[in-house]
Amino acid sequence: MSLVFLLALIHAVTSKHQSVGDPFVDPRSPCSQHGMFEDDVCRCDNCYVGATCETKSETCVVDASSGSPFFTDDYWISEVRNGNKDSTVTIAPYYHIGYGAFVGAGNCGGFAPVSGGCRNDLETEIRALHDAVGNFKHNGYTLVMGVGSTELIAASIYSLLDSSQNATVFSEEPYYNGHSGVAEFFGRNWAQSAEEAEANARTYGRNSTLEFVTSPSNPTGAMRTKQVASGTAVFDSAYFWPHFTPITADRKLSDHDVALFTLSKITGHASSRIGWAFVKNADMAARLSGYVGASGGLVRESQLRATTILASERRRGYPVLTFASERMASRWSALESVLGSSACYSLQPRGGRATDMWSGKTYAPSPAYAWIRCVSGNDCYQTMLSAGVRGRAGPKFGANKDHVRLELLMGEPDFQSMLDLLRKLQSKC
Amino acid sequence: MSLVFLLALIHAVTSKHQSVGDPFVDPRSPCSQHGMFEDDVCRCDNCYVGATCETKSETCVVDASSGSPFFTDDYWISEVRNGNKDSTVTIAPYYHIGYGAFVGAGNCGGFAPVSGGCRNDLETEIRALHDAVGNFKHNGYTLVMGVGSTELIAASIYSLLDSSQNATVFSEEPYYNGHSGVAEFFGRNWAQSAEEAEANARTYGRNSTLEFVTSPSNPTGAMRTKQVASGTAVFDSAYFWPHFTPITADRKLSDHDVALFTLSKITGHASSRIGWAFVKNADMAARLSGYVGASGGLVRESQLRATTILASERRRGYPVLTFASERMASRWSALESVLGSSACYSLQPRGGRATDMWSGKTYAPSPAYAWIRCVSGNDCYQTMLSAGVRGRAGPKFGANKDHVRLELLMGEPDFQSMLDLLRKLQSKC
Q: Which residue range or ranges hold the Alliinase C-terminal domain (chains A, B) (predicted)?
């Protein structure tokens, strides 16, 4: 531990009257305001290095390749600064020795969805959130929790499809590479077109063909519809929240379809790995939770934290959604002011303005990703990387090299750094 | 919430000067000392009911059917009562927004084992624990973390075996039903004998045949050796700790074998779902972590808690192991005083005394389960259930109905209740 780091830490601790177990009032203070202090180390913003993030890097590359939702960092810091303690969890070492992941479940235990009078506090909070936002009417649906929606993607691909050689997965291009990657992991076929998938489903039955309807789309943000009428559809609804698109109606499913959601793209708590599926068909729910159970089940601590945070938000009308909506809107304004009329770099269309049911406000979608086409037809990933912005290349989504995806979910300092780099790039257009 | 419950809670809170976020000094106090208070509800001991566990049940059945390690409850309560705060975790809402499960990993992120100078604090603590106990020499082994060792059992069965129709799993009888259950979930063959498994491995190659060597055995506690020389062996080492058996030598593996461990049977934190595999072969490690990644990866909060608890234990010489050893030894003394010379109910042999390397003490094994044979040849599960003790029936482990497994890992009040019921049963022998 360097001396400068130690001094910064001592300053941060003493100046805020930090006591053991209390969170830092300003976790960026020990890191020169250019990083977050956690686990006794500074996690620096892009372009800053050093033990206390004190040095600006000369060879700066902004990482816009993932979807890590640091954009809510500032909101949660302000919660602590404003003295709201009820979204902080303290876990004694004796807390819930033994099995059983569901908070409030008492002796009900087990991996399967809790029913029959047992409490599942996280499920209650999740359903309340959907009630408030209006994006899914969950009455009559079983909720199956997973280790992030990623596990429910895996569970769908493994357990909703039959085990024949004809088992096929499809998603409209450009598709989320998390769907194609897991399909490949489980050795499933990947259909090249909706027609091919539909033909497969008609020949081999509904359980032979699974379609991921990612709506809003990752990477484009466009709303999608089911393309394979005879197959099973999993509506990946990770981005179907007011900060990404105005919610004008609830998501409607056929009786054998599934809707997936994830906490990570709502509150930002991605490493808590809280995802859920709504399923009407009892056999399909059992298959999904069978996979989750066989793969080790669910984790108690993250569910306790998610429950605590969602309950705190519910009591105050979900201010995190207001924060996230304003932040995404301002990012799109800034991005369009730089690239909106560029002759070299074409942003995807955002979609029209509409009135969101939750906020009552009228606005255009502000997708989680910029899906950029290099008008030159050049390799757009390389073009951006040369400019200091690492995106995710078009071919990963089944698109051409002239496309690249840039995430817009990073922390605010990283977003501003990226914007500066894009401005420089555009100035040479 | 009933009035009596509210009053008990107010008493508990005010009498201990409870403040927001602090753990209860005595979490059994709001529950009439017959249960644990968590998530605003009492989880009652077996045989007690009511909102504050205030009523003894007339129709009492003790649940000895799982392996939920409540036997460490009292240790962790005493930690808090003794004022040791460094095994309590406080998690601010801004803690680690975004992906990345590994505590201390900084920007290293990802699901795969962290290397190349990145810190992984939990891995460091796990390796230190093995160094102290001496049960596994981990130099040269990759550590792959999973959602409990259960996920690594699933990962082994899915990803270490090839996908042919000949893929076969074997474990010596009586075997742990967690192994056979997951093999069935993934549609693998289950070999009926070591000879059958060995023949399969010789015909179709090492990747066709997976053996679980559960040592000490669940359910018997006996030490096991590899039976299928030509296959891949996964040594399920959940019970290879000083409180279950004196550790006289480290576990040795062939280069293509795997060792599994789990936090649940060490500290009792089962719902944290912290399991790990040691693997020498790089391709096998990649396959295991590939399954974990595809299934949603790992959870940050539970790893933070596990790291905190193991570090606190390490600094004081792992007193939880001393507590657990004394408790298991006293339970076996008590059990043998009731059933040790029974003409009706035969306990498994415990194995001989040996000197444990960690404690330097000499003692006989104290297995996690009693594996009981009803000498009459009757259905032993039903016999026990009629006496008020719900075990797990012999056939689940591939044994006959004359056997039943009773767990010895429950909370102390439940263990004493079970002992009373067994004493009554034996008195009628």
A: 62-425
Q: Are B154 and B291 in contact (CB under 8 A)?
A: yes
Q: How far apart are CA A148 and CA A161, in angstroms?
A: 20
Residue B147 has its nearest CB partner, among A38, A88, A147, at: A147
Instruction: List all residues of chain B from 5 to 34 with a beta carbon under 8 Å from chain A.
Output: 20-24, 27
Residue B220 CA to residue B141 CA, distance in Å, equals 29
- Tokens at residue A253, please? 């499913």
Q: Given an 8 Å threshold on Cβ–Cβ distance, is B297 in contact with A150?
A: yes
What residue type is assigned to position B321 of the chain? L
Q: How distant is the alpha carbon of residue B68 from its chain centre? A: 7
What domains, with CATH codes, occur in chain A? 1-57 (no CATH), 121-315 (3.40.640.10)
CB contact (8 A) between residue B97 and residue A73: yes
Q: Cβ(B208)–Cβ(B166) under 8 Å?
A: yes
Name the closest residue on chain B to residue A73, using Cα atoms: B94
- Nearest-Cα distance to chain B for A22, in Å, is 7
Pick left, alpha or beta for residue A5 (phi over 0 → left; psi -120 to 50 → alpha; otherwise beta): alpha
Contact predicate A340/A326, CB 8 Å:
no
pLDDT of residue A13: 36
Q: How far apart are CA B88 and CA B99, in angstroms?
A: 23
Place of tokens 């269309």: A349
B8 has a pLDDT exceeding 80: no
Tell me if A230 sits within 8 A of A256, measured CB to CB: no
B199 burial via Cβ count (<10 Å: 0-12, 13-18, 19+): middle
A72 and B CB contact within 8 Å: yes
Q: Provide the 3-class DSSP secondary structure of residue A283.
A: helix
Task: Output b/e per residue, B73-94; b: 16+ Cβ within 10 A.
Answer: bbbbbebbeeeebbbbbbbbbb
Longest dimension (CA), chain A: 70
pLDDT of A116-130, one tens digit each? 456 789 999 999 999
**Tens-place pLDDT, residues B191-250:** 999 999 999 999 999 999 999 999 999 999 999 999 999 999 999 999 999 999 999 999
Nearest-Cα distance to chain A for B344, in Å, is 32
DSSP single-letter state for residue A240: -
- Round to whole Å and give the CA distance between A288 and A234: 12
Report how far residue B66's alpha carbon sits from residue B407's, in angstroms, rounded to the nearest whole number.
Answer: 6
